[in-house]
Amino acid sequence: MNMDSVRIATGESHSKLILVGEHAVVYGQPAIAIPFPLKIRVQVRKSIGEITISSLLYTGTMKGIPSEMNGISECIKNALMHLNKPLKDLNIKVCSEIPLGRGLGSSAAVATAIVRGIFLYFNMSLTKDELFSLVEISESHAHGKPSGIDMMAVANDTPIYFKRQEGACSFKAPKPLYLVVADSGKIGDTRRAVETVKKNHLADSERIDAVVNRIGEITDKAREAITRGNLRNLGSLLNKNHVELKILGVSDEIIDRMVDTAMRAGAIGAKLTGGGMGGCMLALANTIKDAEYISKELLKGGAFKTWFFSTDGEEIYESHLGNEGEIS
Ligand code: MEV
User: Fold this and answer.
1) Distance between CA 205 and CA 275 in Å, rounded?
2) What is the DSSP secondary-structure string of 130-175?
3) Which residues contact 180 (CB under 8 A, 6 or more apart)?
4) How far is CA 173 from CA 29, 153, 229, 292, 312, in A?
5) How far apart are CA 289 and CA 287, in angstroms?
6) 273 phi-psi bin (left φ>0, alpha ψ -120 to 50, beta other)
7) Distance from CA of residue 28 to its chain's centroid?
8) How many helices (H) and strands (E) does the chain have?
9) 120 lines ligand 1 (CB under 6 A)
10) CA–centroid distance for 150 within its chain
11) Closest atom of ligand 1 to CA, residue 21
12) Cα–chain-centroid distance for residue 206?
């Protein structure tokens, strides 16, 4: 984050991947999330008059903001009220690499970057508690009653082990993870996915509790596999987690097909990531070369977009189809 003499403050955040434990985390089980190096930057600058927003989704005054961005406008208002600042004279410009609605934490990341940008603009220090309570306002608009893992993950630069009652705990992976992420191209709906699981839980709590508990066990074993550097074990736990997510009803045909494609292309494990019902899947590879190959196979197999990266670096690579089906 930086601020220059013409009074522009830049708040930053990044995307996240849930490695294991999504949905079960809503019911008190642990989940593991890692940073995904797609960035978001929000510039806050002086602009006399009503507060204006410039973003891919909407450009205009805060008053005219579309309903799907109400959480963001509430978050901005609350941040300014918290700082005793007037609700005017600002332009907030969002530049994001994170695709919307793909389970990659875009809503939490934009709110995090906005809050950071606003505090920086007014030269105010920001505690973690202040950040999370402001981002939570936006997240509950976006997802209903979220577990809180997304906002913790996008604000952390290390893997986190998260439990709703206990919060996030950072931990280290001794070996890098080589990961591929594929976007199905279908907008995921985390709120609907969480509500579907909730409805199923109300209808048959014993069955859903059993799935949720199994996912919790998978997550604990995955943490152990990561800290011991046992990636083969981690891969098979990802596969097991995907089976449980299918039972919960949050995967779909496209994600399942991409998981199969990744496994056929040599992944050690693959699963849906995030809320599901569309969105993205992830695959674990043995090497960065393997990750590149898997990402290309996914693209050839119809994935809308694929990325691959190593958790020990900042770089992220996106595969593209060339003119003759070549991939660069
Ligand atoms: C969304 O990234 C993760 C979910 O578990 C929802 C939540 O934890 O709030 C599906």
Assistant:
1) 20
2) HHHHHHHHHHHHHHSS--SHHHHHHH-SS-EEEETTTEEEE---SS
3) 262, 267, 282, 283, 285, 291, 294, 295, 298, 306, 307, 308
4) 21, 16, 7, 21, 9
5) 5
6) beta
7) 19
8) 9, 12
9) no
10) 6
11) 5
12) 29
In the chain, beta strands by DSSP E: 8-20, 31-46, 52-54, 59-61, 90-96, 160-163, 167-170, 178-183, 269-273, 280-285, 305-310, 316-319
Neighbouring CB atoms inside 10 A of 272's CB total: 32
Task: Answer yes or no: are the C-beta atoms of 271 and 259 closer than 8 Å.
Answer: yes
In the set 4, 150, 209, 256, the catalytic residue is: 150
| Pocket test residue of 29, 149, 211, 245 for ligand 1, highest count of atoms within 8 A of CB | 149
Rounded to 5°, the CA angle 201-202-208 comes to: 20
Residue 117 near residue 3, CB atoms below 8 Å: no
Q: Are strands 52-54 and 90-96 parallel, antiparallel or unpaired?
A: parallel
Question: Could you tell me the two tokens for 147?
Answer: 């577990």
Neighbours of 227 (CB within 10 A): 15
Strand order in the sheet with 305-310: 269-273, 280-285, 178-183, 305-310, 316-319
Q: Is the distance from the beta carbon of residue 189 to the nearest atom of ligand 1 less than 6 Å? A: no
CA distances from 239 to 43, 255, 320 (A): 40, 13, 26
User: Does 22 sit in the ligand 1 pocket, CB within 6 Å?
Assistant: yes
> What gap in Å lies between CA 179 and CA 187, rounded to an integer?
21
User: Which pLDDT score is estimated for 188?
Assistant: 86
Let me know: does 70 contact 111? Beta carbons within 8 Å.
no
Q: Which residues of the chain have pLDDT under 50?
A: 3-4, 323-328
Question: What pTM does this model have?
Answer: 0.94
Cα dist from 168 to 30, 51, 150, 164, whole Å: 10, 34, 11, 8
Residue 277 tokens read as 């019902």
pLDDT of residue 314: 81
Q: What pLDDT shows up at residue 326?
A: 44
Tokens read off for 54 = 């410039």
